[in-house]
Amino acid sequence: MIRLLLARLRRFLTLSHISDALLLIGLVCLAVSGVLTLIELGSGRTAYAEGVIIGFGNPPMVQFVPRDKVDPIQFTSIMPTTNWNAGDHLQVAYNPDDPHDARIDGLRGRWWWPFVFGSLTILCLAAGAVCTLMGREVVRRWRRRRHR
């Protein structure tokens, strides 16, 4: 009887520790995602232009012409990817005061890291909630059997 009690208690403590860790990781990822989003929103990249991939290394080289300018601007993407080919057209977000401060707009560009950490937030919080509920169910069943 005591062995059974200890085995069940160990399983609950394990689920409890796992759920606590997952919930903590989820909250940290939520904070990181929020900070990265705020940094990107405050970056000043408020103007948009159509760009084209002119050189496909990893990461790709992008060229675009800012509004009210004649000379094209080139920059290397910070996201290494194999999803694009040379000649592909894409949206570019840039700072109108400093057109060299530019990023590929969209999920595969400047919003990639906030998306990754936001997804990890959802996964960790959901898994932590499931572990918490499972741990409570284990304790509830144990108490019910103990009182029989």
What does this structure look like?
With 148 residues, the chain is an alpha+beta fold. The chain has two domains: 1-43 and 112-148; 46-109, OB fold (Dihydrolipoamide Acetyltransferase, E2P) (Beta Barrel), CATH 2.40.50. Helix content is 51%, strand content 21%. The protein is built from two helices and five strands; from the N terminus they run αβββββα. It has a five-stranded antiparallel beta sheet with strand order 3-2-1-4-5, with no helix packed on it. α1 (2-41) runs antiparallel to α2 (112-146). The two termini are 14 Å apart. The model has no long low-confidence stretch (mean pLDDT 88).
What's the structural blueprint in terms of helices and strands?
Blueprint: H1 2-41, E1 47-55, E2 61-64, E3 73-76, E4 89-95, E5 98-104, H2 112-146
Antiparallel strand pairs: 1-2, 1-4, 2-3, 4-5
Helix pairs in contact: 1-2
Quick overview:
By secondary structure, this protein is of the alpha+beta class. It is built from two helices and five strands; from the N terminus they run αβββββα.
Query: What share of residues is helical?
Result: 40-55%
What string, H for helix and E for strand, traces the elements in order?
A: HEEEEEH
- The total count of helices amounts to 2
| Category by helix and strand content | alpha+beta
Tell me, what's the shape?
Answer: rod-shaped
Structural domain count: 2
Low-confidence stretches: none
Number of E strands? 5
Major sheet description? 5 strands, antiparallel
Q: What is Rg?
A: 25 Å
Q: Looking across the biggest beta sheet, what order are the strands in?
A: 3-2-1-4-5
Q: Report how far apart the termini are.
A: 14 Å
